[in-house]
């Protein structure tokens, strides 16, 4: 498998109160932690939904107001056009991605992390299905995962989700 890592980073971070991607988790920015984990498992990594110096960046598709779904759509189309078989997606706010994430999510079709549906392994070939889902009014990543019968995989312990500054280590 040739896998594109996609950091979905286009959110407004309203609950967080500042740019979540640049928040420090320990001594490292969240976006850099996620990028490192994805680079260990992917052939290339892109940031979706924002311009971020030092990264290849993709605008959300077809528009910026779609949240994680727009970022995933951009990544799937990029992957399909550039010879990647899959997209491994992760939010910028999931700092503890496991080193065996691809292996755990592999097994045919799409798969998402049960407690973090923004973390998933998606075949690039479903880019057109996501276009149709969005054109039909679909706006939720979890609903799209259900629409394509993505497998839900549980992790123990669950993956972290940094939503507020209080979720960061001291």
TrEMBL record:
> Which residue intervals define the domain MobA-like NTP transferase in the entry?
5-140
Known InterPro entries for this protein? MobA-like_NTP_Trfase (IPR025877), Molybde_CF_guanTrfase (IPR013482)
Q: What is this protein called?
A: Molybdenum cofactor guanylyltransferase
| Residue ranges of the TM segments | none
Keywords linked to the UniProt accession: Cytoplasm, Magnesium, Metal-binding, Nucleotide-binding, Nucleotidyltransferase, Transferase
Q: What is the lineage of its organism?
A: Bacteria, Pseudomonadati, Pseudomonadota, Alphaproteobacteria, Sphingomonadales
Q: In the record, what terms sit under GO molecular function?
A: nucleotidyltransferase activity
């Amino acid at each position: 498998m040739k896998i594109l890592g996609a950091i979905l980073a286009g959110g407004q971070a309203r609950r967080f109160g500042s740019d979540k991607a640049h928040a420090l988790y320990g001594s490292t920015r969240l976006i850099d932690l996620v990028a490192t984990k994805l680079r260990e498992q992917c052939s290339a990594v892109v940031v979706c939904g924002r311009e971020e110096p030092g990264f290849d960046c993709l605008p959300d598709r077809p528009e910026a107001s779609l949240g994680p779904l727009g970022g995933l759509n951009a990544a799937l189309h990029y992957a399909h056009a550039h010879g990647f078989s899959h997209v491994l997606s992760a939010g910028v706010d999931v700092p503890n991605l496991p080193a065996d994430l691809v292996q755990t999510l592999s097994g045919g079709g799409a798969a998402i992390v049960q407690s973090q549906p923004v973390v998933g392994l998606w075949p690039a070939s479903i880019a057109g299905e996501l276009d149709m889902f969005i054109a039909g009014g679909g706006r939720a990543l979890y609903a799209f995962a259900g629409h394509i019968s993505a497998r839900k995989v549980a992790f123990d312990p669950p993956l972290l989700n940094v939503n507020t500054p209080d979720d960061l280590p001291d």
